[in-house]
């Protein structure tokens, strides 16, 4: 397994979940491959609900947790501000985690096992989102075109360009893009020929997937799924994905 100079975990939260995320934070902090800190991106106001984010004392008191007050870009807030903070950093890897998932202690180890510093790619694991909102996990390994249904992504240094802030602002201003952070990220990295690599290979020590999901607060019924219709998220890449009209004029 590759030795990493530094890995940070990046996530965001919505007001209705902030009282329930302690198990998530603790699961991330006890990984067998340790994270330096968790960087928690919290907007002052949640644009989706209009609620103000109140940060509890227990959260501010957690060791190895850094809270950043950021703009609300939608679900992509869990990773985009962190990518921007590390634009000039050539050593730090960023693990994108969800706020409603109880990760096993070796989940980050699974991503690290497939990372190869000599290969320019973004390791992730996951599967295909089903109409009922659950995930049909894919097993094996292959280059893919989409982050859909993934349980975690490990972003290497220098994976975004100078065009990313403008692309982020453009997509955050679009109603459909705001709901689909997986699609927005896939279009960006696909446009820049930065491969995404799915890896789910079992061993006795490393699990296929996360062990459990906590209380969830999904988008309205089928809202997330409906916005994916017409895409083939987990086909092996045969060329650049076609950029939908709503993001044309973004990254170049």
Account of the 3D structure:
The chain starts with 5 loop residues before the first strand and ends in a 26-residue tail after the last helix. It has 252 residues and is an alpha/beta fold. The chain is globular. It has an eight-stranded mixed beta sheet. Strands 5-12 form a two-stranded antiparallel sheet. It has a single domain, classed as Alpha-Beta Complex (Spore Coat Polysaccharide Biosynthesis Protein SpsA, Chain A).
Supply the number of helical segments. Answer: 8
Could you tell me the mean pLDDT?
Answer: 74
According to CATH, the fold-level topology is: Spore Coat Polysaccharide Biosynthesis Protein SpsA, Chain A
CATH architecture assignment name = Alpha-Beta Complex
* Low-pLDDT segments: 207-252
Number of strands: 12
Radius of gyration based on Cα positions: 17 Å
Largest sheet: spatial strand order? 3-2-1-4-10-6-11-9
- Broad structural category: alpha/beta
Specify the CATH homologous superfamily. Spore Coat Polysaccharide Biosynthesis Protein SpsA, Chain A
- The first-level CATH class name: Alpha Beta
Largest sheet: 8 strands, mixed
Q: Name the helicity range.
A: 10-25%
What's the N-to-C terminus distance?
Answer: 34 Å
What is the H-and-E element order?
Answer: EHEHEHEEHEEEEEHHHEEH
Portion of residues in beta strands equals: 15-25%
The gross shape turns out to be: globular
Number of domains: 1
């Amino acid at each position: 397994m590759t030795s990493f100079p530094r890995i940070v975990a990046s996530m965001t939260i919505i007001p209705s979940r902030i009282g329930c995320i302690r198990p998530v934070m603790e699961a991330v902090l006890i990984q067998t491959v340790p994270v330096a800190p968790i960087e928690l991106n919290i907007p002052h106001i949640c644009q989706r609900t209009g609620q103000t984010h109140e940060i509890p004392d227990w959260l501010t008191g957690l060791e190895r947790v850094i809270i950043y007050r950021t703009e609300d870009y939608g679900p992509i807030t869990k990773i985009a501000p962190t990518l921007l903070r590390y634009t000039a950093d050539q050593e730090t890897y960023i693990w994108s985690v969800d706020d409603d998932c109880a990760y096993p202690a070796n989940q980050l180890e699974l991503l690290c096992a497939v990372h190869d510093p000599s290969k320019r790619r973004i390791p992730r694991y996951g599967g295909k989102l089903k109409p009922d909102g659950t995930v049909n996990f894919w097993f094996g390994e292959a280059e893919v075109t989409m982050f859909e249904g993934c349980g975690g992504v490990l972003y290497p240094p220098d994976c975004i360009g100078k065009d990313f802030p403008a692309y982020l602002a453009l997509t955050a201003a679009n109603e459909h893009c705001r709901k689909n952070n997986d699609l927005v990220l896939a279009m960006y990295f696909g446009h820049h020929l930065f491969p995404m690599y799915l890896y789910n290979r079992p061993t006795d020590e490393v699990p296929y997937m996360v062990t459990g999901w906590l209380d969830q607060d999904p988008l309205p019924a089928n809202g997330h799924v409906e916005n994916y219709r017409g895409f083939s998220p987990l086909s092996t890449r045969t060329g650049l994905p076609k950029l939908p009209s709503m993001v044309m004029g973004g990254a170049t």
